[in-house]
Amino acid sequence: MSDLTLIISFYNRIDYLKLVFAGLEIQTFKNFEVIIADDGSDENVIKELNYLISKSSFQVKHIWQEDKGFRKNRILNRAIVESQTDYLVFIDGDCVPHSEFLREHYFNREDKVCLTGRRVNLSKKITDLLNEEKIKNKFLEKNQLLILFDSIFGNTTDFEKGIYLKSHLLRKLINKKSRGILGCNFSIHKEDILSVNGFDERYEAPSIGEDTDLQFRLELNGIKIKSLNNIAIQYHLYHKLQERRPENLRLFEEVKKTGRFFTPFGIIKE
């Protein structure tokens, strides 16, 4: 049996998922299963995905729902239920993991604690340089100067979040400051996310629903958020930002007013 489940939210960008899979092939931590939480990808994309799964060295399960707009939280809840392990790591299908990513999430796990890492936001220029072979050869980890120069003279942002710290002292110093959950980079015990009934499925637009709302309810239930900045690292592949719609903010204000950690709109419907 695997030690952890990696849940990858996905929609149509098979070119980016191939790079994510290349990053998973070189993980130092090997005992994991993958669930692709697919929010309605096209039929031709699924054919490519099935081929990608067939040649991967790790166990992969693909779950899909019909494309009815942005319903990421709904498919993530299904993935939680389908998972076969006690520890869950969540990423997006456009975030390439550092080779130590899964190891750091797994070996830093604690009871009643949700871990959250950070990501480097790569420019289009750097993203366009990448292919599966380069990822497997640790191009992003070995070419820090290139990424630094692009962060100064180009469009890469958050370069400093890609500096992998090995020193326990530096790790403690960097992570004294509390940080919020990042929906594309966090991990949690399955029983802890089930205790708040998973994600609130009413959020049907990007942002807030997959992280801010979840954090609010986890903390209400006594689960702490712990930062893995410069420890659990990812590289976010460039794409145009999706529209942030105001209804998510209005919905979150309602959630805060109720003060309930167990959402009635999650895995179990009340």
Description of the structure:
With 270 residues, the chain is of the alpha/beta class. It has a single domain (4-258), classed as Alpha-Beta Complex (Spore Coat Polysaccharide Biosynthesis Protein SpsA, Chain A), CATH 3.90.550.10. Helix content is 37%, strand content 19%. The chain contains twelve helices and ten strands. The chain has helices spanning 14-25, 43-54, 72-82, 101-107, 124-129, 132-136, 139-142, 144-153, 168-174, 190-194, 212-220, 246-258; strands at 4-10, 32-38, 59-64, 87-92, 95-97, 113-116, 118-121, 185-189, 224-227, 233-236. Strands 3-2-1-4-8-6-9 form a seven-stranded mixed sheet, with helices on both faces. It has a three-stranded mixed sheet with strand order 5-10-7. The longest helix is centred in the last third of the chain and has 13 residues, at 246-258. The chain starts with a strand and ends in a 12-residue tail after the last helix.
* Residues in helix, %: 25-40%
How many beta-strand segments? Answer: 10
- Based on secondary structure, the structural category is alpha/beta
**Mean pLDDT across all residues, rounded?**
97
Beta-strand proportion: 15-25%
CATH superfamily: Spore Coat Polysaccharide Biosynthesis Protein SpsA, Chain A
* Overall structural domain count: 1
Report the sheet with the most strands, covering strand number, pairing sense and barrel closure: 7 strands, mixed
Number of helices: 12
Query: For the terminal residues, how far apart are their CA atoms?
Result: 33 Å
Low-pLDDT residue intervals, each spanning 5 or more residues: none
Shape: globular
CATH topology: Spore Coat Polysaccharide Biosynthesis Protein SpsA, Chain A
| CATH class descriptor name | Alpha Beta
The succession of helices and strands, N to C, reads EHEHEHEEHEEHHHHHEHHEEH
CA gyration radius, whole angstroms: 18 Å
Strand order of the largest sheet: 3-2-1-4-8-6-9
